[in-house]
Known about the structure:
Blueprint: E1 12-16, E2 25-30, E3 36-38, H1 45-57, E4 67-69, H2 75-78, H3 81-88, E5 91-95, H4 97-101, H5 103-106, H6 108-121, H7 127-137, E6 150-152, E7 157-158, E8 161-165, E9 174-178, E10 184-187, E11 201-203, E12 208-210, H8 212-224, E13 230-233, E14 239-240, H9 242-263, H10 271-278, H11 287-303, E15 307-312, E16 315-320
Parallel strand pairs: 3-4, 4-5, 5-6, 10-13
Antiparallel strand pairs: 1-2, 2-3, 7-8, 8-9, 9-10, 11-12, 13-14, 15-16
Helix pairs in contact: 6-7, 8-9, 9-11, 10-11
The structure holds zinc ion (ZN).
Amino acid sequence: MPxxxxxxxxxxxxxxxxxxxxxxxxxxLYPGPPVTLFDxxxxxxxxxxxxxxxxxxxxxxxADIDQVILTHHHLDHIGLVRRIKEASGARILAHREVPARLxxxxxxxxxxxxxxxxxxxxxxxxxxxxxVIRQRLSLLNLMDEIExxxxxxxxxxxxxxxxxxxxxxxxxxxxxxxxxxxxxxTGDHLIHRVTPNPLLRWNPRLEARERSLVxxxxxxxxxxxxxxxxxxxGHGAPFHDHRAAIDSTIQHIERRGERxxxxxxxxxxxxxxxxxxxxxxxxxxxxxxxLSAVTGYLDFLEMRGKVALDISGGITxxxxxxxxx
Length: 325
Ligand SMILES: [Zn+2]
């Protein structure tokens, strides 16, 4: 781990295991007062023990926790919320989008309805929905009912922290900057050397698909403008120079956008056709991730004015805009 100045920054890093390919997830302890955790690991016994051991190493008991602040609503970050609350009575704080978005990962009826619309618009067969639902339902044992005690908005002050809403990686991501030291808990919005693959998402307020990668790109630009000393991410070691990290992620997005544009035929494609073009032999369990990525890059190209949309019969085609047009 790079050497951040531990004697100056009162944030303790607790690594907890997950069952996901992403590997361990970080929980951060801020000694307060109030005694604060950022995120809550995965709902497994192994993660619970790792959390308790990490707290004990700092002389803190689970019962001492006053509040848990969530960076976003993904299962590897919120799993132990209920157990922590039961042991401590801690207040659970999250951005106001979290309660609105939880049903889309926990409620099968909501998930089914949203997938139906998403897949239809992208020209994908409805049979794909079953595979996605199967995958999601297999994870529900990691999800306890959770209640958010207090929601906050973009720009809210929480003690020495300011919350910054940064949707993209998920629909609820926030980062938290600490004043006056300018370090930040960046959750999964900013992870060193990782460009996330924002998944297809339905926005229940807009009743429309959310352009996840475009949102992510816009959020990166906002974070780039902040003054941040050290970044404490949801995964991996602390890092500094957030602008270099953001610039390399933006370059990665630009390159993949360019490759997607080069592969698009003159008559255009639906996102589903384009995914089959780029990933001709997809694994059944990863096709949805490929479709999410390709759709994200097509959205990005549309934002840049490089492709135009042709919507007919509820299906969207993306057509390259010739430079002379
Ligand atoms: Zn994560």
